[in-house]
Each structure stands twice: as C-alpha cells, then as structure tokens.
Amino acid sequence: MAASTTSAAAQTPHHLVVGAGVFGVSTALHLLARGHAVTLLERSPDGRAAVDAASNDVNKIIRADYQDKHYAALAKRAISAWRTSPLYAPFYHEVGLLLHSGPRPPKDGRAYVQNGIARAHAEVLESDGAGVPFVETPAPGCELPPKARQLKSDADTDACFPPSLRDQLGAALRDMGGSQSAYVNPRAGWAEAGNATHAALREAVRLGARVEGSAVVTSLLREGGIVVGVRAEDGREWRTQQGGKVVICAGAWAHDLLRRLGAPAPHPCTPSAQSVILLQLDDEQRAAFRSAPVVLNFSTGFYIFEPDEHGVLKCVGAAH
C-alpha cells in the first residue's frame, strides 16, 4: 500500500499558483479537488492576500445582473454557492443592490436598466455543458428573494430600505422613473472579501496546499522553451512536477508582473483604482443602516455599503 501511495504521489501534477488572493486561492481549491498538488506563492510575509490587494478588502459587491451575459451566468451560479456553502455563506450578506442613474443619466441609462433586469431574469445553464437549466438555490431554511424589478416612484425606492432610513435618503435617491432610471435586485448583496479569501486559503491548506510567503516572483524558469517554475527576488526557486503549470493570479499586479517576466500582458490587462472612504459609525447609526441595500450610481461609479460588524461603512468613488 505504501509503495502504491508513493507511486501515485510521484505521478500527481504539481502546480505553482502565483498569488493567494481570490483568483489564486480559488484556482488552488479547484486543482486540489481534482487530486492535484498545489503550492501557492504570495508576496505577503504571512502568505495571505497582501494588505493592499483587492481581495483583502472590507467588502465587495456580489451580483449577477452584469451587462455581459457570460459573466452574469457565472455570477448567478456563484451566488447560489455563496448562499449554501458552509465555507462561504458566513461571509455573504444578501441585502440587495439598488442601481440608479443619478439626476443626469447617460443617454443609454434606460437601456442599462432594462438590460440589467433582463440579465437578472435570464435563464442560466449548468456549467457542465449538458444544456440543463441551472436552478438557483436559496440559503438553508429560506426562500429565494424576489427577482430584480424597475423602480418607478419614490415609494418603490422607500420600500427597498429599512424604515429607519426612508426619511433620510435625500435628493440623490429621488424621482426614480422621472429624472432617474433605476432598478433593485434583491438577489444580490455583498461579501466580506478579506474574511472570505482568508477562509478559502485555510481550506486550501487543510486540503494539502503549501503556502510560501514573501515570495516576490521576479523571473520564470524555462526548460526547452517551456515554463517549469519561478524564481523569487530572494533567490528561492520553485518548480512544477509531472506536467504541472505555473498559473499567474496576481490581480492588479498581473500587468507589471507579466512585463517583468517577459510575457506580454493580454489586452485589456490594465489595473485601475478607486477612491475609498471608510466611516466609523456609532451604535445608533449602525442600527439605522443595518440591512440597507448596496447602492450603486452606474453613471458616476459611486457606491456605498451597509456597515460591517464593526460599524465601518464603506463608500467607493469612480475608478481611475
């Protein structure tokens, strides 16, 4: 038995995943589920997503009403996992998402709203390619929230918010159906990005992944023109085994990393940034905002979340 186990291990592909953020850890989990071996290389000292990585954030919007139908389909399947997975469900808050144009909507504002609602309602197929319709799964013991709908009045808008906020919404969230175009998608919300990513990394380690911290990759190792490993700036080297691959999951740093490695970055692999404001609310304010939907102005890119468990409310400005 020992000899058989050793032989099987020697034939197992061993992959190197550069980056332990959401894409890197997700890649590792899928490879581990298929019986492959994985080493995660992360530039942070502790091997978790770096403090300045997008994955290591207070929260991120979770939605499936994107304008791109393929991304929307992927997101709709993912949301069912967010609701039901013991690993991810503790970090998902399905409070809904309200999208509005602002008082000076773009020319295609109404079309954006109609397309978003259509994407939220569109049938999605299972990912196995068999053409079987995907069935959304509610959280255990719950029913699915209502589907996305257009907002046509102030009363429609008020109904999206807890009573404690309805008389404080202000002009920015008024005149829906008039000067503004808007819709709400109750089957959306936000995730505790950093907490979920760290939990996924712990699960990858439990399943056998190795994690190497302070691994700032600076060059590729090649044999016969084939990439077989990487070298870090401190001189350490890691190599794939048994046909394993080097997978770059460096997020916003992918563009610069690929250029440094001599591999052209695919278009449009260009990083962007957003201005973030974090506000510490007191207990009374935190209670008033609890369960408020994420609000996104699709004209300006400004969006705002309900406060997290520590009372921190996050606002985000337009990308630049």
Automatic annotation (TrEMBL):
<keyword id="KW-0274">FAD</keyword>
<dbReference type="Pfam" id="PF01266">
    <property type="entry name" value="DAO"/>
</dbReference>
<dbReference type="InterPro" id="IPR036188">
    <property type="entry name" value="FAD/NAD-bd_sf"/>
</dbReference>
<keyword id="KW-0285">Flavoprotein</keyword>
<dbReference type="GO" id="GO:0008115">
    <property type="term" value="F:sarcosine oxidase activity"/>
</dbReference>
<feature type="domain" description="FAD dependent oxidoreductase">
    <location>
        <begin position="16"/>
        <end position="313"/>
    </location>
</feature>
<dbReference type="InterPro" id="IPR006076">
    <property type="entry name" value="FAD-dep_OxRdtase"/>
</dbReference>
<dbReference type="InterPro" id="IPR045170">
    <property type="entry name" value="MTOX"/>
</dbReference>
<dbReference type="GO" id="GO:0050660">
    <property type="term" value="F:flavin adenine dinucleotide binding"/>
</dbReference>
<dbReference type="GO" id="GO:0050031">
    <property type="term" value="F:L-pipecolate oxidase activity"/>
</dbReference>
<keyword id="KW-0560">Oxidoreductase</keyword>
<dbReference type="GO" id="GO:0004657">
    <property type="term" value="F:proline dehydrogenase activity"/>
</dbReference>
<comment type="similarity">
    <text>Belongs to the MSOX/MTOX family.</text>
</comment>
<protein>
    <submittedName>
        <fullName>FAD/NAD(P)-binding domain-containing protein</fullName>
    </submittedName>
</protein>
